[in-house]
Write a structure and sequence with these properties.
By secondary structure, this protein is of the alpha+beta class. It is 40% helix and 6% strand. It has helices at 20-27, 39-53, 60-66, 79-84, 126-132, 139-147, 175-182, 188-211, 236-255, 257-262, 265-285, 302-312, 337-352, 411-424, and strands at residues 151-153, 156-157, 169-173, 316-317, 334-335, 381-384, 389-392, 398-399, 402-403. Strands 2-1-3-7-6 form a five-stranded antiparallel sheet. Strand 8 (398-399) and strand 9 (402-403) form a beta hairpin. It is elongated and about 95 Å long.
Length: 425
């Protein structure tokens, strides 16, 4: 079967995606030509165009069952007017002399775009809400996250993309998946470095596995112990390399599908606990490093980190403005206040956004291209991007001048689509 082209440029269809081709189609989208078409043809073409964007992964029969005639809307009212009167003057007639001054007349509200709420039931779907919260670059990718078990609803894993959210539901996505979906992709150099790092970890894991004693080895015989000889204590570098090889071996056992499928749940828990223990031990054993990422003896305060790093690099603090110092005493290793602030910023960036070639996205993390054109959050969602979670506050509604369902189509296209499905009910 021929593969479908979701981002065709010859006959463009708008999609829920951040793809650059979709952005190009969105920039040149025009209202459909309805001058030489019958009313049936107008409704069908409008429905086809709108359904390519709203719920492209939802089957037509499923959407027809979800369609509702009732369109949610609200009408704002002037609280000052409600507080001043209870409406009795409206019953006295126009000749009572109670006509308000032209300057005091209430301003007319703009029209409410009710027809833009046609596809509001689809906004309750979990995959659509993940895309609206900017946790995925498209609804197809959001659907993949849900199916793969990377999404939780109210603290429980949810694997059904069509789950309908209720007001107050909170959904979470794995942060690594969100950073992969919204981050820039790697270039050729970064992909090559990632392959080398993975190959190195696999080789070290293989060597560590070969060094472990097997069950078929003969039992040690009870012989007279040889005379004790003062053995050399292993250096800190050797200990660190051994711990790193053990950590990579445990990670390989957990990530390899063939190995993970043969492990029991209790064994996986033990391996994860072993990984955490090795990480803590590695952090304690890295006391000789001058880099803050590899040294846990550095305190959390950036000032303390800066002071300790200055001592390790044998840097002298810059003299005060009022202090008289011989210029010959100032060496090239003096740290000026400007360099100190730059070093503090570098420490902060290295701690919050480090370089890691093993990640599937470009590091340091940066947003993917053409993302700013789609960066908006609907009113019915409350999103916390630091923990990659969001709350579905309420169902979207229409109000004067605004419909809370994001749509690239005008009121005419949505009205024709509503009439098409209204005829089907």
């Amino acid at each position: 079967m021929r593969a479908k082209r979701p981002y065709c440029l010859k006959r463009p269809k708008l999609r829920q995606s951040w793809n650059k081709h979709n952005l190009y189609n969105l920039s040149r989208a025009e209202p459909p030509n309805i001058t030489s078409r019958t009313f049936f043809q107008q409704k069908w073409s409008a429905k086809s165009t709108a359904r390519a964007y709203h719920g492209e992964t939802v089957k037509e029969k499923h959407w027809q069952r979800m369609f509702r005639r009732r369109l949610r809307s609200v009408i704002p009212m002037d609280h000052n007017q409600l507080a001043r009167s209870d409406g009795y003057e409206q019953a006295e007639g126009r000749g009572s002399g109670l006509e308000p001054h032209p300057d005091n007349k209430p301003r007319p509200f703009p029209k409410t775009p009710y027809m833009n709420m046609t596809f509001a039931p689809l906004e309750r779907r979990l995959d659509t809400a993940i895309f609206r919260a900017m946790f995925a670059s498209s609804t197809r990718q959001a659907r993949q996250f849900v199916v793969h078990g990377d999404v939780k609803v109210n603290g429980k894993k949810m694997i059904y993309p069509g789950y309908l959210l209720n007001p107050g539901d909170m959904f979470q996505v794995e942060p690594e998946r969100v950073m992969f979906a919204t981050g820039a992709s790697k270039d050729a150099r970064e992909r090559r470095a990632g392959r080398k790092a993975r190959q190195k970890s696999q080789n070290s894991a293989t060597r560590s596995q070969d060094s472990l004693p097997s069950a078929s080895d003969p039992a040690p015989t009870t012989e007279e112990p040889p005379p004790t000889v003062a053995a050399e204590e292993p250096s800190s570098d050797d200990t660190k390399e051994t711990l790193q090889s053990l950590l990579s071996q445990a990670r390989t056992l957990l990530t390899t599908p063939s190995s993970a499928s043969n492990l029991s749940g209790k064994r996986k828990q033990d391996l994860r606990a072993f990984q955490r223990l090795l990480k803590r031990t590695l952090a304690r054993s890295a006391g000789q490093s001058i880099f803050p990422r590899q040294n846990t003896t550095l305190t959390d305060s950036l000032d303390a980190q800066l002071q300790e790093l200055t001592q390790k690099l044998n840097l002298n603090p810059a003299p005060l403005p009022d202090e008289k110092v011989d210029p010959r005493d100032l060496g090239p290793e003096t740290l000026t206040p400007e360099n100190s602030s730059l070093l503090r910023k570098a420490l902060t960036e290295a701690r919050e956004n480090p370089i890691d070639v093993t990640k599937p996205y470009a590091t340091p993390w940066r947003p993917r291209p053409y993302m700013s054109a789609f960066a908006f959050i609907p009113r019915y969602l409350e999103v916390h991007h630091r923990i990659c979670s969001a709350v579905y506050l309420r169902h979207p509604v229409a109000r004067p001048g605004l419909a809370e369902v994001p749509t690239p189509f005008g009121n005419d296209v949505n009205a024709l689509s509503f009439n098409w499905y209204l005829r089907r009910r």
